[in-house]
Task: structure prediction
Amino acid sequence: MSVIYLLITISIVVAIVFLGAFIKAVKSGQYDDDYTPSVRMLFDDEIVKKENPNKLIQTEKQKSI
Amino acid sequence: MDTENCFHCGNEIIKKDEIVFDEKKFCCNGCKTVYEIFSQNDLTCYYDFQAAPGATPQDIQGKYDFLDNEEIVTKLLEFQERTTHIVSLYIPHIHCSSCIWILENLQKLQPGINASQVNFGEKKVRVTFNPEQTSLKDIVYLLSSIGYEPYISLENFDEGKKKVDRTLIYKIGVAFFCFGNIMLLSFPEYFEVEEYWIDQYRGFFRWLIFGLSLPTFVYSASGYYVSAWKSIKSGLLNIDIPIALGIVVMFVRSTVDIVFDYGQGFFDSMAGLIFFMLLGKLFQQKTYDFLSFERDYKSYFPIAITKVLPNGDEESVQVYDIQKGDRLLIRNQELIPVDGILISEKASIDYSFVTGEAVPIEKKSGDKVFAGGKQMGKVIEMEVLFSVSQSYLTQLWSNDVFQKRVEQQHKTITDRISRYFTPTLLALAIVSFIYWIFIDVTTAFNVFTAILIVACPCALALTAPFTLGNVLRILGKRKLYLKNALVVEQLAKVDTIVFDKTGTITTNKKTAITYEGTELNSSELRLLKNVLRGSNHPLSRRLYDFIPNQEKVETSNFEEIIGKGIFAEIEGNTIKLGSSQFLKTMTENTHKKTKVHVEINGVYKGSYVFNNQYRKGLEDLFSDLAKHYNLVVLSGDNDGEKRILEKMLPTKTTLVFNQKPEQKLQYIEQLQKEGKNVMMVGDGLNDAGALAQSNLGLSISENVNVFSPACDGILDATQFDKIAFFMRYSKNAMKTIYMSFGLSLLYNVVGLSYAVTGKLDPIVAAIIMPLSTITIVSFVTIMTNLFANKK
Result:
């Protein structure tokens, strides 16, 4: 039955690890700005998609001039 | 009329100035250049996230020369190492996702920039760069050239690294960790299964819970002990006393319980209570990072100014280093930082920052110029009379009366209730204790502690933070930004509202212009518009915008006589524009109005009259407010508009004219002595004293990102006609708080009835506490939202 000691100890250790991770994250300033990251994560994909057509327009333009 | 908008900045395009580039239309060369920069660097994605996100770049020639000065740069940098410099720049234009995108791709525009990161909430960009490849000045120029001019003021120079206070979040994290684990470990005992299993491990569970409760008790709740102790020392009974008492009693009683094996104790309720109360504190802490309510002259003043050395060379000097006798060069749109004497022949100085009056004042050589004025037009030279700290404006600021008293004698609603609550609670606990002690000593102790535990005013303490926190958010969405939750309470108490005139009940933006005199035909209008194009005088600019678009014609002869008017020759016609003295043919002369007179080919035509434009909905607002409040209009101007105002505003409104900043302050003070609770609504620095003196200073701002004097709240000018709604809403918020107090007292009565009879089980406490918290929080949230939708 003493496995309960082991299990509870493990569960609390896991919880402490998470608390530590949370405090570390707060300390690093991760929660200071809660808006910008939500926008930033949407950027990368769109750049790849739109980059080529724009280049084309420009080169065509330059040719015509 | 075409209503095409610029691809870059979204402003309407004037057909004549339209520039087509890359099949896109632009309103001016500046916008086109920005587009060019972006398209050359494959950054046109900028326009994909939001339509027309840009701003026209401003001409900043020479403005940032002070960034060559090592000392100043060092002060501005956040981090400095040989190959890495980090700087945080405040950029007011940041407003959409395109802004974030372009500013985080700065490294593609300039080599040497390693990384840049935007903080949208604070409107700041943090740039990491290599000083060997680029400089702060280059970066500032780059930002300005793409329409994101940073704002650098004296404030940046003084402020050190700001420390962010995150203790509340840590405390909540710890409290939640303890609360969750204690709850989990308490479950077996809630159900009181008298089993072999439970019996064997009870001790282990209880001591584990005790251990887990220690961090919450010692660390998370520490703020309450400190506050309660302070409150006892100062003789005021605030709400933190019963809270701290409740927490301590809970902990001691629970410890006693488990030591003598009486029961499992109340550790679960204690941790939950602390967690919820800290959450309430967090909720109340809504801050607007991009606004500042504590501004003084420092956030308006430039960091450095151009000094003319005796040998004629120019040099950037820090404004604090300016000494008496120095010669300074003030460029167009630059702020004069010190008092001095004008050396240049003429200057046109806009004191709107100090007085709120937008029309520039003309100064001649030898005249005194005061700090706070902005030079409009040509570069001027001046000699310094006083250093920064001794100048009139800075002296005014340092004056004690002009400083906002941080600790106003204001008791919060919760504190007022707790003045009755705390003694009642203690009395009840003692009476029950005495009653029970004759029956059973152990029960007496149990009852005494149970009362203090169950009556711990958790719900009571949560009501105000949650209500006011929610109100603050709702008001923020409607563009009234309040400094903190306390201001909502203040708002509800106001009985007198004082308005400033210029800039507050009138707008500076759209001045209604009317024409008096002989009708001008279209060719004459065309000439007029073309003449005005060349002038930088604010009245000319306004008139230029007023006259409909015309064909472009070059003026053959153009002369602007500062302070008088314009003389121009165009297509063989001579045109004179300006003041009545300038056009000597003038007959009538009224000083009460701002006029621009027109003369074409020697014939007097008429004049354009600039009327002050009152804000939209002003009359309705005043008649609405007049039902409940005393209204006053204080103006620094002459009484030229007295008649119009008397007609427009309710008869009860008091109108006072010719008020200097100090007089405004004294006027408010006088009202307060009469026992009035005064709200001051103002805009310029001339109201700063009055805003500080009043019980609640509300500053009206055309653009909340630009600067406003120190105040308790900033209202977006477009929402001016909603003031009556805001006032009503704050009163409803207070009503909500009272109702919710009733509700939480009801819970207390129920809890106490268990406690007094000595039947408080840990499980009852564990149910009542969170239940009351949840009902209160949902009740106030629903109520505040309901009231917000009511007109």
About this structure: Residues 46-65 of chain A have pLDDT under 50 and may be disordered.
